[in-house]
Amino acid sequence: MRRVILIVIVAAVVVVGGVMLFRKPKVSAGSKSWTTQSDSISGGRATVSRGKTAGRLKAKTKEERIAEKKRLRDEERKRKRELRRQERERRRMLKYARSRRGTRKSASRKGTYYVVKAIVSLGDDSYALIDNRRVRVGDVVMGRKIVEIGTDRIEVEAFGRRTTVRVGESLLPPSYFVQRRRS
């Protein structure tokens, strides 16, 4: 008997809890309100609830609403025009900076391929950095064989002739680079 009463009580609690959980919530008066622009003393926004005005002295006339929309539209246009002008100016500055950089680079890049950046002397295990690439004695770069690595220079053999290249100089001879004629 006690078991049956306990089961009935638990079932009633589950039913009441389920009804309360799955029932639609009531819409409160606060959720039916929204905000509009108003002619209040503060000049801010007024709350309209169930068709009643709150916090404003008088309703706006049709002409006032039209004038307000026109003013806001004009302000938005001015703001967008100013943003476009600033963007154009920024792009123009970037273009000029890029073109100046480009001409400088092309002029200074002439004859700077395969430059000996550094020489690391570790006794027998020395190597040179040519354009951020490690080369040791016996390696071949652009058809030129590294014969010897000194403390401040490397000896390169190309076409049966040996040449010395110092740090900062190009591995390729100046005649390798094509001279452009300006017209």
TrEMBL record:
Q: Please give the organism.
A: candidate division WOR-3 bacterium
Q: Provide ranges: composition bias, Basic and acidic residues.
A: 60-77
Q: What is this protein called?
A: Uncharacterized protein
Q: Where is this region: Disordered?
A: 30-90
Please name the taxonomic classification of the source: Bacteria, Bacteria division WOR-3
Q: Where is the composition biased (Polar residues)?
A: 30-41
